[in-house]
């Protein structure tokens, strides 16, 4: 045990003392936020403002086609239609002309058959769909008016219905759409981070083992320590590095959420009718305060505990596989035929967890979070929605037992493979090493 501790300490200190590790740990959350902001700005920068002139032969649409910040309607006289279409080409201040036909006998089918949009540039699909939606809404209103329904009644028909959801299993707490969205975002974020870190740090263990094997450094090291102690020291050392990063990031996230949550009371006053839903009038800071409040309203101590436990066990489980692979091959090219066995179960668990968003307590979610090969990502994806304590305990027990068993198998392979050179490992050879 003393040798495992010394190797773990060496691996840990070697990584955390690097300037790159310190900078990445402290700046990664800011980089992620900045990256998200850049993506948002890119979408914003690519938004278009289209100007469409409208020739309304029926006179039905004037005053009903409403302009907005992305699409501007300008109504022109019917007599100018031909001249406008003729002079459209090369007109830099105009994107197109919408020609709406005359309606005969209130036959709205004529509009769909004879309406045309003449453009002098390539307009986006979203702009075209917005025009179609605007025309359809006007036609819909006119058809309803023909049925003798007044404007006030029409507005009442379009009024949205808000359904309050009260969860009795969470102390009769009201579960709003925003709260569900926050849970979904947190679920996806934690699941993806776990998936990526297990693969990234697992591959790091495999490459470290392979490098020491190829440099023949391992021949000197194992003269002082047992192969199993060397393997466990490497795995635990890198595990502590990853956990250190997570502890720093979780602390920064909780502090950030607490700071942003101070503005929640003022945000509530700006939401009409005391509704918990965000309105379009809220700015980014107010939205952040609302989201932070919903995050802190979750059982985040349990979420953090489950996240750390399942990441720790899941990482050790898969790193044992990666360490065994690194010891069994002579170069990175040969690792490709074996790493598939580590990546496939994790990938299955991640993509299977996407279906949990609509039914976290369904049979698929239960089995994915219980089976040890997929539980490190599936249980983390489920935990923001709430998971019974007995399921968490059962999943931890099975994952812990399977992890210990996998360490035992990996140790058998590592013990033989670390000193094997020039002999290409096959599944048959690996089975012999395990049995020996």
UniProtKB/TrEMBL annotation:
Keywords: Cell membrane, Membrane, Transmembrane, Transmembrane helix. It is a multi-pass membrane protein. One of its GO terms (molecular function) is ABC-type transporter activity. Its main location: membrane. It holds the Pfam family ABC2_membrane_3. Residues 19-410 form the ABC-2 type transporter transmembrane domain. InterPro entries: ABC-2_transporter_component, ABC2_TM. It is found in: Cell membrane. GO terms for cellular component: plasma membrane. The chain crosses the membrane at residues 21-43, 185-203, 235-260, 302-325, 337-354, 392-414. This is ABC transporter permease. It comes from Chryseobacterium aquaticum subsp. greenlandense.
């Amino acid at each position: 045990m003393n040798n495992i501790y010394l190797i773990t300490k060496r691996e840990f200190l070697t990584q955390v003392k690097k300037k790159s590790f310190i900078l990445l740990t402290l700046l990664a959350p800011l980089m992620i936020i900045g990256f998200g902001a850049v993506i948002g700005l890119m979408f914003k920068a690519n938004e278009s403002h289209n100007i469409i002139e409208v020739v309304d032969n029926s006179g039905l649409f004037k005053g009903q086609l409403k302009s907005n910040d992305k699409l501007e309607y300008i109504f022109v006289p019917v007599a100018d239609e031909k001249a406008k279409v003729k002079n459209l080409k090369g007109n830099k201040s105009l994107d197109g002309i919408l020609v709406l036909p005359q309606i005969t006998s209130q036959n709205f089918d004529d509009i769909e058959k004879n309406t045309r949009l003449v453009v002098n540039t390539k307009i986006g699909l979203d702009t075209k769909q917005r025009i179609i939606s605007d025309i359809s809404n006007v036609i819909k209103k006119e058809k309803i008016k023909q049925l003798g329904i007044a404007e006030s009644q029409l507005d009442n028909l379009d009024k949205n219905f808000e359904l309050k959801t009260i969860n009795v299993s969470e102390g009769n707490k009201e579960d709003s759409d925003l709260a569900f969205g926050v849970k979904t975002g947190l679920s996806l974020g934690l699941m993806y981070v776990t998936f990526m870190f297990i693969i990234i740090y697992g591959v790091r263990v495999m490459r470290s083992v392979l490098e020491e094997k190829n440099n023949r450094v391992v021949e000197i090291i194992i003269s002082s320590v047992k192969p199993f102690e060397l393997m466990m020291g490497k795995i635990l050392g890198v595990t502590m590095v990853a956990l250190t990063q997570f502890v720093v990031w979780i602390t920064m996230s909780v502090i950030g959420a607490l700071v942003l949550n101070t503005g929640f009371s003022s945000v509530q006053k700006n939401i009409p009718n005391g509704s918990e839903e965000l309105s379009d009038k809220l700015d980014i800071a107010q939205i952040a305060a609302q989201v932070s409040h919903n995050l802190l309203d979750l059982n985040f101590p349990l979420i953090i505990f489950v996240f750390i436990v399942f990441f720790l066990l899941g990482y050790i489980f898969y790193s044992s596989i990666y360490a065994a692979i690194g010891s069994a091959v002579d170069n990175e090219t040969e690792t490709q035929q074996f790493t598939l066995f580590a990546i496939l179960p994790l990938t299955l668990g991640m993509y299977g967890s996407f279906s949990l968003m609509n039914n976290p307590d369904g049979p698929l979610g239960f089995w994915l979070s219980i089976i040890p090969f997929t539980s490190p990502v599936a249980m983390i994806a489920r935990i923001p929605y709430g998971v019974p304590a007995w399921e968490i305990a059962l999943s931890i027990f099975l994952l812990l037992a399977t992890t210990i068993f996998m360490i035992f198998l990996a140790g058998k392979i590592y013990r033989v493979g670390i000193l094997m050179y020039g002999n290409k490992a096959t599944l048959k050879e690996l089975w012999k090493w395990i049995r020996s």
